[in-house]
Amino acid sequence: MRKGEQTRQDIIRKAAPIFNQQGYAGSALSDLMRATGLEKGGIYRHFDSKEQLAAEAFDYAWQETLDARIHDLDIIPNSVDRLKQLVANFAGRRGIIPGGCPLLNTAVDTDDGNSVLRERARKALRGWRAYLISMIRAGIKAREIRPRVDASKLATLIISSLEGAVMVFRLERTEEALRAVQAHLETYLETQVRAPSK
Amino acid sequence: MRKGEQTRQDIIRKAAPIFNQQGYAGSALSDLMRATGLEKGGIYRHFDSKEQLAAEAFDYAWQETLDARIHDLDIIPNSVDRLKQLVANFAGRRGIIPGGCPLLNTAVDTDDGNSVLRERARKALRGWRAYLISMIRAGIKAREIRPRVDASKLATLIISSLEGAVMVFRLERTEEALRAVQAHLETYLETQVRAPSK
Questions:
Q1: Which helix (H) or strand (E) holds B39?
Q2: What are the chain B neighbours of A111 within 8 Å (beta carbons)?
Q3: pLDDT in tens, A37-74
Q4: CATH number of the B49-193 domain
């Protein structure tokens, strides 16, 4: 990697927690300078605008978050067990970047505003849903999941209930909501989603 | 109401959608001046600080939102039917102020920052949970709800999954997530929460 590209990645990595904690409007240039140890010119040599830096920082933060939520799923053979592990990873906030879930933060931060960032958040949500839907459909095909389960609705339910629990967690600073939603989804996956064993 | 108090309430009412859409850091004085039609001095004659105005605006926005979600529940005799109507009101986004759910917005906006606003959001969440818990406990007492239902966990599940669906709705601008969560909760309330009829 060229030195310029290294510096660029370093800026993204250090800016990500700032944007994730303070939001787009709340992240001042002075905060970004403090976090990166660079002057204004040193930052904006690598990015066209604050918006572009925020978009790259979001992509980075989301990728880190997603990786932590799914990195250990491949070794689990059964798709319902994979879904349960994914829920557990999510509820356990594995590898989460400071500030909480970047998707929740950026969705709420940009739903009435910044269209570039909003588009990144939409893309993240679409990718995340598509990943879950594909896992569920594979499970149906393998007869591990009941054939009448609606993959799209189940994916939406998992994402919505966990992201909402993150909101409660962020406010209350107790894991109660995450654990309650995890327990609910686990029971639901076992009793309504898993195909009865033959 | 005295004229000064009328003006104060008018400022709160007009500032609420600004803060709800743009967040605390993203709401500039110029936005508040445009929305209220007042100069800086005209606004800050009534409030000690932007923080105080934002806190009052949040309380107003939340009260409006909560009223819309619960105003028609009292006439419904059965507690499970009341919960279902509450879910339907929430999913139908009845009377929601521009910018989406003030609790979700303010929770995410302030979880790493403004402690006064964060405290208002925590208070709103606590009140909202307590309202649900009390409704569920009354239902258990009246034998409309199964005695082993955990009122606190059920309240948390309803709030988390609906608030998460609002996040998806705000990003996607389709009601799919709200409807999926509503359908899930309705089925759950009917099959796992409602006491079997004797």
A1: none
A2: 99-100, 170-171
A3: 999 999 999 999 999 999 999 999 999 999 999 989 99
A4: 1.10.357.10
